[in-house]
């Protein structure tokens, strides 16, 4: 994979993605296929997963790696992916960037099971875990209130609701770095966008350095 340039407010920064072994990247792509609007029917069909009532459009493997690179993910980080789909962000966080731990929260039990299957080796090692979200009390759950997460990945549409926004502001103030996909969070004035790639639809929010 060639090096990728991402846009920032102060210029550009060169990605390190090109240093990943080609075979590792290709295996990642085979394991987590990209969605092609021109070739695939909607919603995306995944073997063993019923997406009839909850359409699933996965983030491309390319965007996954770019986003985790932009947030400077490292072995010191613990990642929480809210709405983890097939688990590709969690898998990449651990296998490519060496994150200590990654937890994916997903609303569909079928996707929780599929995610676990795809990352079974890392799940068995205790590096990755997937959980089904309880929509009735998600905010009060021990997982969401845990102080161990250093990076949060979120796909929050404008209809996502103020409850989720309030939680993100709470975590930002605690020092958590937030990766927003497709929809930016600039309407949340309490957040500071430190890095963005508008072409890819990726925004990174983190506290300004003192």
Automatic annotation (TrEMBL):
GO cellular component: mitochondrion
GO biological process, one term: regulation of mitochondrial ATP synthesis coupled proton transport
InterPro entries linked: FAM173A/B, Methyltranfer_dom, SAM-dependent_MTases_sf
Pfam families: Methyltransf_31
MF-aspect GO terms: protein-lysine N-methyltransferase activity
Methyltransferase domain: residues covered: 74-137
Signal sequence, start to end: none
Keywords associated with the record: Methyltransferase, S-adenosyl-L-methionine, Transferase
UniProt xrefs under PANTHER family: METHYLTRANSFERASE DOMAIN-CONTAINING PROTEIN (PTHR13610:SF11)
Membership in a protein family: Belongs to the ANT/ATPSC lysine N-methyltransferase family.
Protein name as annotated: Methyltransferase domain-containing protein
Native organism: Linnemannia schmuckeri
């Amino acid at each position: 994979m060639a090096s990728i340039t991402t846009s920032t407010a102060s210029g550009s920064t060169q990605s390190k993605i090109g240093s990943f072994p080609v075979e590792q990247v290709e295996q990642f792509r085979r394991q987590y296929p990209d969605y092609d609007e021109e070739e695939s029917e909607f919603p995306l069909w995944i073997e063993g997963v019923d997406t009839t009532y909850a359409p699933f459009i996965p983030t491309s493997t390319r965007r996954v790696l770019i986003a985790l690179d932009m947030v400077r993910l490292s072995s010191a980080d613990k990642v929480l992916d809210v709405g983890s789909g097939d688990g590709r962000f969690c898998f990449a966080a651990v296998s490519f960037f060496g994150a200590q731990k990654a937890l994916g929260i997903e609303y569909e039990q079928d996707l929780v099971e599929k995610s676990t299957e795809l990352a079974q080796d890392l799940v068995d090692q205790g590096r990755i875990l997937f959980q089904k979200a309880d929509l009735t009390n998600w905010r009060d759950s021990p997982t969401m209130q845990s102080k161990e997460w250093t990076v949060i990945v979120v796909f929050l549409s404008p209809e996502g609701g103020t409850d989720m926004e309030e939680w993100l502001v709470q975590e930002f103030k605690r020092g958590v770095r937030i990766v927003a996909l497709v929809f930016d969070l600039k309407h949340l004035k309490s957040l500071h966008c430190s890095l963005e790639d508008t072409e890819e639809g990726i925004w990174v929010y983190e506290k300004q350095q003192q």
